[in-house]
């Protein structure tokens, strides 16, 4: 009996030793031998970095446009009220100018921009760079450059900067302005809250948004792609990575994204860019009138058959409109061959006219049809708002 017990004990010891060795060196043998003890999963083959993105991915569009989107850090002197003692001769005799450096603190701002040419022209929002004393541009690859302001256009909230690099810079490609439709997928690229370059995805919610009170000239793309503070001036690109707009504003009650963002379309962006690069400023047509919508009540009081056109509510003295004989109460219905349906279309069309040329204005003055030739003037530059 003792011999049998020794044989049993040795057999158990050898079996435990074998299991230990197998579990250490070949654990998969034990898993195959005991089905059901682990979950059998199928793993995708390890990629080498050259595999195509998964279906539905926008990685190619992001990779194409990310290098052209930059981070903009601005700084300016936020001066406070100067203490009267600093101008006192006795005080300055004893303490010198040691307190002069405390007159103003440096305030910094964050935003985004888009490189639009290989030689270093960058588009951004005017509100990102206005009042800035210095600007630093950080590229996607970590390089940093000082930038100079080429020109800005407060009425569309666009500005053009310039940096100088030793080699060609990555630049974005412009999409066809007429190729964007409601429902198209778009990506918003920028640096929200300064966390780093970020890509968000959404669709085009609406086109031609205006009368928002953001800028003088408005024709916004509305998107639900998340846009937050710091995204301003960044790129809105299509599913191919081509620029369709410059992210500009959000509708928000909290300061964060609520899914209603606005971008300036490339049709406006291209025009402003070309004018600023060529002349350092944007030139627009102007006639010097105040216009307003024609409500049904106004149409009835003026004896109009319908509410189409733009009502001339006021005429600036000695302006092109005044010299041509346009009067308050006239209803503008056409400029040349272009019908005017509302004040917004009138403002946009006149702004697009070349200063110095003449245009025929067709109006209704009571029951009478009136035509006058107006020499288009140059729109005055708006004053920079105080900060």
Automatic annotation (TrEMBL):
It is an enzyme of class 3 (hydrolase). Its EC number is 3.4.21.107. GO terms for molecular function: hydrolase activity. The keyword Hydrolase applies. Residues 276-354 form the PDZ domain. SMART domains: PDZ. PROSITE patterns: PDZ. The keyword Protease applies. Keywords: Hydrolase, Protease, Repeat, Serine protease, Signal. This is Do family serine endopeptidase. It comes from Thauera sinica.
């Amino acid at each position: 009996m003792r011999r049998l017990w020794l044989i049993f004990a040795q057999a158990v010891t050898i079996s435990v030793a074998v299991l230990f060795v197998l579990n250490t060196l070949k654990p998969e043998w034990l898993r195959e031998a005991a089905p059901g003890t682990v979950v059998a999963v199928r793993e995708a083959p390890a990629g080498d970095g050259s595999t195509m993105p998964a279906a539905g991915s926008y990685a190619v569009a992001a990779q194409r446009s990310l290098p052209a989107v930059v981070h903009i850090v601005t700084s300016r002197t936020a001066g406070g009220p100067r203490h009267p003692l600093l101008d006192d001769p006795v005080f300055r005799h004893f303490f010198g100018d040691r307190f002069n450096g405390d007159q103003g603190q440096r305030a910094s701002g964050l935003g985004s921009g888009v490189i639009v040419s290989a030689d270093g022209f960058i588009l951004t929002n005017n509100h990102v760079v206005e009042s800035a004393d210095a600007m630093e541009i950080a590229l996607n690859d970590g390089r940093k450059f000082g930038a100079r302001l080429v020109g800005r256009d407060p009425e569309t909230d666009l500005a053009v900067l310039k940096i100088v690099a030793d080699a060609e810079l990555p630049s974005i490609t412009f999409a066809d302005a007429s190729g964007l439709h409601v429902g198209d997928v778009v990506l918003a690229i920028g640096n929200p809250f300064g966390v780093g370059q970020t890509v968000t995805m959404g669709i085009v919610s609406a086109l031609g948004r205006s009368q928002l009170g953001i800028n003088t000239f408005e024709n916004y793309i509305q998107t639900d792609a998340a846009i937050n503070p710091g995204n301003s001036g960044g790129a809105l690109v299509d599913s191919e990575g081509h620029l369709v707009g410059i992210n500009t504003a959000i509708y928000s009650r909290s300061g964060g994204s609520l899914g209603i963002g606005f971008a300036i379309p490339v049709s406006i962006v291209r025009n402003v860019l070309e004018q600023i690069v060529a002349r350092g400023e944007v030139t627009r047509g102007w006639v010097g009138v105040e216009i307003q919508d024609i409500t049904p009540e106004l149409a009835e009081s003026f004896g109009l058959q319908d509410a189409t056109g733009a009502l001339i509510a006021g005429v600036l003295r000695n302006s092109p409109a005044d010299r041509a004989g346009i009067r308050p109460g006239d209803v503008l219905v056409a400029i040349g061959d272009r019908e005017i349906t509302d004040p917004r279309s009138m403002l946009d069309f006149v702004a697009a006219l070349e200063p110095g040329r003449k245009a025929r204005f067709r109006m209704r003055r009571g029951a009478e049809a009136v035509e006058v030739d107006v020499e288009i003037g140059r729109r005055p530059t708006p004053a920079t708002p105080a900060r």
